[in-house]
Amino acid sequence: MTGAIGAGIVVVLGVLGLLVGSFLNVVIYRVPIGKSIVTPPSACPRCGNHIKPWDNIPVISWLLLRGRCRHCAEPISIRYPIVELITGLLFAATAVKFPLDLDAPAAALICSAVVLVAYLYFAGISVALAGIDLDTHKLPNSIVLPSYIVIAFLLVGSSIIASDYSRLFPAAIGGAAMFAGYFVMALVYPGGMGLGDVKLAGVIGIVLGFVGWGSLVVGAFSAFVLGGLFGVALIAFRRAGRKSGIPFGPWMLVGAWLGIFIGERSWNWYLGLFQLA
After folding, report:
1. In this structure, are residues 154 and 119 in contact, taking their beta carbons and an 8 Å threshold?
2. Which residues pair with 207 in a beta bridge?
3. Residues 58, 22: contact at Cβ < 8 Å?
4. What is the mean pLDDT of the chain?
């Protein structure tokens, strides 16, 4: 029964992620231009007709409308269902990574729920920030800075509930170390690293450190590997030059999620190689 309920939670959160992804499409478009994410209602940029609720069902509406406005046939970017799908899958995967122990005492269950909420929040801002950075090469303070407060509040709260503060130390060290490291790189090479990256690095360091030291190392290192490979690929296919600006935020976030999901296992495997030797 517990397994069935756990699977149900994953499905529910996956569906919730699809809905959140629909909202994140609004965030990605409106935040960089300074528009409210609440009003006015979403509308077609060509004909101005408001999008009806039945035309705003994640992924399904885009497929039924064949990627076009119902009223004027204006093409609707495929990025909209992609953002929704990515968010849905990320929410479901996060529920698997941070499961609710339904057989645990109430305090432990609440603790695990708070941790899950913290990483679902991080999943949401990850999608939003990646989309915005790809579009504008900027990471808005209006999203990054409040994340310090929200994530710290949730993770500290979970530790208080569990009366276990052991994971707060690596979280604090991770946040401070990544912020400081990126800040130094921004000073040394201001053209390649922006202050938005520096501020985001602190948030990433906190969520990685809370999972474990291995996640912190793997997540931080993966960003540079992935970003470097992407840059080399762009140069190889002549889509960019050596001095071209490439948004680094998305790779920081992808690296962070790799660290969250496989960081501890990968780090333990790596250390095991030295023991075998």
Report:
1. no
2. none
3. yes
4. 92
In angstroms, the Cα distances linking 140 to 28, 43, 149, 184, 269 are 10, 24, 15, 20, 37
Contact partners, residue 43, CB within 8 Å, separation at least 6: 49, 50, 51
pLDDT (tens digit per residue) in 244-267:
668 999 999 999 999 999 999 999
* pTM (2 d.p.): 0.94
Amino acid at 165: Y
Our CA dihedral for 64, 27, 127, 172, rounded to 10 degrees, sits at -160
Contact call for residues 213 and 171 (beta carbons, < 8 A): no
- Cα(124)–Cα(121) distance, integer angstroms: 5
**How far apart are the C-alpha atoms of 47 and 83, rounded to whole Å?**
24
Of 259 and 105, the structure prediction assigns the larger pLDDT to 259
pLDDT (0 to 100) of residue 5: 74
By residue count, the chain amounts to 277
